[in-house]
Structures are given as C-alpha cells and as structure tokens.
Design brief:
The protein is of the alpha+beta class and about 300 residues long. The protein has seven helices and 20 strands. β8 (about 70-75) and β9 form a beta hairpin.
C-alpha cells in the first residue's frame, strides 16, 4: 500500500494515485483496493446513466460505477473504494474515473460539501471559481497560477465547516486538466493526448498543501453579453448558487446526504461573499477576467494580493 493525503484525508492505496501528495504511513481514512466486482447492467433496478455512457447506482451506503472497457468501481461508507479494471484498460483511464466520480461520491458519503469548482490560495483565504464544464474554471486557475498564486483544487473542491464555524477549503492534488485550446493559451505543448483527451499538468511547486478559510466564490456564467459583468449575490441567492454547482448532485440524492449538504452550504452562504460573473460566450479573455476578480477582491481586501 502507498499512502497519500488529499481533501484533508489520508489514503492507503494499492493503485498508484498520480499527483497525490505522498504522506508517511498513518491510519488511513480511506483505503483503495483491487477486487473482483460484478459490472452494473442497464436493467438493474436503480441504475442510472451519465450522458457520456457510464452506469452508476447510489444508495445510502454504497456507490457503484461501471465504465465499459475501463473498470467497475464500488465506494462504500465514505472509507473504502474497490476497483476492478478491465483487461486492456490503461492506468490513465482507470485513474481518471477514480479521481473524479469515485472521489466525488466518497466525499458526499462523508458529508463533505463538494463543489464543481477550482480554487486558489490568496493571502486572505481561498477563492473559488465555480461553474459548469466549459465555463473556464481550469483556464482561469492556470491564469492565476501564472500570476504567482498557488492552487488548492481543480474542477472538484471540498469544503467543510470547522468547529468554530469557519468554512475551510481543503487541498486536493497539484494537477490540472486542460482542453487543448486552454493548454495552448497557457503556453503548454499539446502533443498526443491519448486516453484522457485533455492535457494533464502537474503543479507540485504551486500547490497550497494546507486547508484554507474560504474567502470568496465567483460563479462563472458564459452569457450573451458584451464584456464582463460582475454581480454581487445576496445571501438567499448564494445558497441556491451553491446547490446549482454541487459536484454530481445525482450522486448526493441517491446517497441520502441532503441534510449534511444543506448544513455546510448554509454556513458557506452565510459567511462567504459570492459573485456571479457573466462574460461573452464569443470571446473568452482569461487575463481580463482575472483582472476583474482581483479588482473585486481589493474592494474588501485593500492589502496587496
């Protein structure tokens, strides 16, 4: 078993977890093991399908996922992940669904608020960029990394509430996944992308390894507008915005975790300022968008960032 730390948890895994931070052996919160699993079938009661084809089943104690020609996965009680890789599947393919869908389900099982968001560390706390796929989260994250900030997470961000009521953003792992256009914009060479269809970029020296208080959330909304519009969200709208950007809400419903989810979402909405950013669907200028975000942060945080 190899030991890693991510999302504030210690993982002991039989499967290499690329880009996870290694940690000395310790009692793990989560174990990841190989085991034979019966693949889900479309006619199994309760089975649902992602738009891209994988089948999943979620109930109060377990989450099952089957990706044809890749692997079957089982996530149980927020502490165990079982993986049965298909013959011929690559480590990249198996790891892709393990690090995304399975970890998302596991965090939901543990009552951890999991947002479809990227996050950076600033001197005043964590700043999140939330939005649907294609909204520009990872490209914006890469833009801020180019300005000297450190990343906390890409695409999936975990938030808990400390005993003193402070919302904390937990570091995931120092890796971003970029579509070819975004990768080229950020100055990365794009060769053959292989199984992942996106360029995976490691950022070991630009990673914040400690939990950070949540300071601000920006919801990215491509729209039919000119330029960039920034709207401050009232508290009641913050709560609904958080719900709309929860990672894989279909998992949460099946896992019966709504009460824990609502509790953390309400604490986040009460304490953390949030804004909706609308930018043109025709022109995406990450540098100008980052400028506007830094300007917004300066309104409440007049110290240099």
């Amino acid at each position: 078993m190899e030991y890693y730390r991510a999302f504030g948890l210690v993982f002991a895994s039989e499967i290499p977890l690329a880009d996870f931070l290694p940690t000395p052996p310790a009692p793990p919160a989560v174990t990841i093991r190989r085991a034979p699993l019966a693949p889900l079938q479309r006619d199994t009661p309760g089975v649902l399908s992602h738009s891209d084809g994988p089948l999943f089943l979620a109930d109060e104690t377990a989450f099952r996922l089957h990706v044809a020609e890749v692997a079957s996965y089982a996530v149980e009680n927020g502490c165990s992940i079982w993986v049965d890789a298909c013959a011929g599947a690559t480590g990249v393919q198996v790891g892709l669904f393990l690090r995304a869908c399975c970890l998302g389900a596991l965090l939901h099982q543990r009552g951890i608020l999991t947002l479809h968001a990227s996050a950076i560390e600033t001197p005043h706390g964590a700043v999140l960029f939330a939005g649907q796929s294609g909204a520009g989260k990872s490209t914006l994250l890469g833009t801020f990394l180019g300005r000297g900030y450190r990343m906390l997470a890409d695409d999936m961000t975990a938030v808990t509430v400390a005993e003193n009521g402070l919302p904390l953003v937990h570091p995931a792992f120092p890796r971003t996944r970029l579509c070819p256009d975004s990768a080229r914009y950020l100055g990365h060479e794009v060769g053959c992308l292989g199984d992942s269809k996106k360029l995976e970029v490691s950022h070991p020296h630009a990673f914040a390894a400690s939990a950070t208080p949540a300071q601000r959330i920006f919801f990215l909304s491509p729209a039919h507008c000119d330029g960039i519009e920034v709207e401050d969200l009232a508290r009641v709208r913050r709560f609904h915005a958080i719900l709309s950007q929860t990672y894989r809400t279909e998992y949460m419903r099946g896992l019966r975790q709504k009460s824990a989810h609502f509790r953390v979402a309400a604490a986040l909405a009460a304490d953390v300022p949030m804004h909706r950013i609308r930018r043109s669907t025709q022109v995406f200028d990450p540098q100008s968008l980052a400028d506007r975000i830094e300007e917004k942060l300066q309104e409440v945080c007049p110290c240099p960032l």
